[in-house]
Write a structure and sequence with these properties.
single chain; alpha/beta; Glutaredoxin; 2 domains; six-stranded mixed β-sheet; 11 helices; 11% strand; signal; oxidoreductase activity; TlpA family protein disulfide reductase; Redoxin; Thioredoxin_ResA/DsbE_sf
Length: 297
């Protein structure tokens, strides 16, 4: 859960909520007024409520996507670690209010109040999960991909040893309509070439291609080819661990590091590595994971 919060709080370079149409369950108009039922509840029921609440937030951003993209473009990485998600959104809007029309400000303020109500419910459910011992069951909040299923863009099954064969796997989440995502593809290819000899690999996960959609795979392949990106890209199953992880990403491109055991290491990087500072930061993190892997052998 902490990783999900971090992803939301980091500067959003591009919002992609293509998952909403496929998985939306909530009623945005009623999100702020409903409450979590009292009493003993099963862990799976609590988790389902949590997923539903996350989705309700997604739907709010999707409903007013254009104006929220303007908000995300104003966010500062220096402030992105704020502990209070809603107040961070509100302060960003307030400090940039001259950039919005009166109607846009009205929409944003109404959305923020709705999100505030959803966040209160999320906190309530998370507390129940903590009490039941089901939430963040690992002391270090490590997120692991126990199963990664799907096919690469050539139709080959994703190998079971995708992670175990590499000291580090750099997993980049992108989609075809995201300009910052496309802009970094050639740099990701350069990164893949650079870390191969070190025991690393870059793999792409195009979220438009989930569950093997042929038309979107064809489109994604054309974009990769145009950018000279030859590293492997996957059309994952939406219900796999990595697919579920991707469904909670709210800013693209997002890049994560996965160790040999399938554990996500460190915090996700949001933003393209065609920015040299981001590239250097990511490379430093990659070398750290590889060094740790070597020390554990």
């Amino acid at each position: 859960m902490k990783t999900r919060r971090t992803i939301i709080m980091i500067l959003a370079l591009c919002v992609a909520l293509s998952f909403t149409a496929c998985t939306g369950k909530g009623d945005v108009g009623k999100a702020g007024s409903s409450s979590v039922s009292e009493g003993t509840e099963k862990t799976e029921d609590l988790q389902a409520k949590l997923d539903d609440l996350y989705q309700q937030e997604n739907e709010i951003f999707e409903k007013h996507k254009d104006v929220w993209e303007k908000v995300f473009s104003k966010m500062s990485k220096a402030d992105a670690g704020s502990d209070n998600y809603v107040e961070y959104l509100a302060s960003t809007v307030e400090s940039n209010k001259n950039s919005f029309t009166d109607d846009e400000l009205k929409t944003l303020k109404e959305d923020i109040e709705t999100i505030r109500g959803i966040e209160e419910q999320i906190t309530e459910v998370e507390n129940k999960l903590d009490t039941s011992g089901a939430s963040d069951s690992k002391d270090d909040d490590t997120i692991a991909f126990n199963n990664v299923s799907g096919k690469d863009f050539d139709g080959n099954d994703v190998e079971e040893n995708l992670f175990s064969k590499n000291a580090v796997t750099v997993m980049n989440f992108w989609f075809t309509g995201c300009k910052p995502c496309v802009a970094e593809l050639s740099k990701l290819n350069e990164l893949n070439d650079a870390i191969k000899s070190m025991g690393g690999e870059v793999v792409g996960v195009n979220t438009d291609t989930f569950d093997g959609k042929e038309a979107t795979i064809k489109e994604a392949k054309k974009i990769l080819e145009s950018q000279g990106a030859k590293y492997r890209n996957f059309a994952l199953d939406a219900n796999s661990d990595a697919g579920k992880y991707a469904s909670e990403i709210m800013a693209f491109p997002t890049t994560i590091l996965v160790d040999r055991k399938g554990n996500i290491v460190g915090e996700p990087m949001v933003g393209g590595i065609d920015n040299q500072e981001n590239y250097d930061t990511l490379m430093k993190q990659i070398k750290s994971v590889i060094e740790a892997d070597s020390a554990n052998k």
